[in-house]
Amino acid sequence: MAENRLEVLVGALVLAAAAAFFVYAVQNSGLGGNADTYTLKASFRSVQGISAGSDVKLAGVKVGTITSMTLNPTTYFADVVVDIDKDILLPTDTAILISSEGLLGGNFVELIPGGMPDNLAPGDEIEDTQGAVSLVQLLMKFVGGSSDSAPTE
Predict the structure, then answer these.
(1) Are 12 and 43 within one domain?
(2) Same domain, 52 and 82
């Protein structure tokens, strides 16, 4: 009888630990809704190097997360939805771009606030976007040269 109680107690502890890990995973993955954030949208030509769950930074500090990315079949741009901390108020002329953490580092989304007096409201779209820059394309331009730099006779 004592063995059964001990087994039930250990089983209950294992289930409680599993439930705690599940709640932690949902909260930190961005799958669960967060009341401390608001949603903004942006449309990029290229989102290479980022994915849902990537960081959104302002002045190097994480202020949000990418929650979804979909291809717009009309414009062929990537429509991105980001959740921003509700304490961060962004002017309407804020720019959003995909930046690199260094030559070999990963990519993240960077916010560059503008100077307009009005702020973006939840659900608004950030118009000023800059997609990912391909390092390979830059190297090919450098190595191959361009017709603009050819000497004129």
Answers:
(1) no
(2) yes
> How many structural domains comprise the chain?
2
Q: Which residue has the tokens 């976007």?
A: 129
Rounded Cα distance, 142 and 153, in Å: 23
pLDDT digits (tens, 9 = 90+) for 85-144: 999 999 999 999 988 776 666 788 899 998 899 999 999 999 988 877 666 666 777 787
Structure tokens, 48: 């290479």
Is residue 45 located within the same domain as residue 28?
no
2 and 63 part of one domain: no
For the chain, where are the alpha helices, taking DSSP H only?
A: 2-29, 135-144
Q: pLDDT per residue over 48-73, tens digit each? A: 888 888 889 999 899 999 999 999 99
Distance CA(8)–CA(2), nearest Å, equals 10
* Dist. CA 27–CA 60, nearest whole Å: 23
Domain that holds residue 11: 1-32
Alpha carbon distance 135, 141 (integer Å): 10
The token pair at 152 is 């004129």
Secondary structure class of 66 (helix, strand, coil): strand
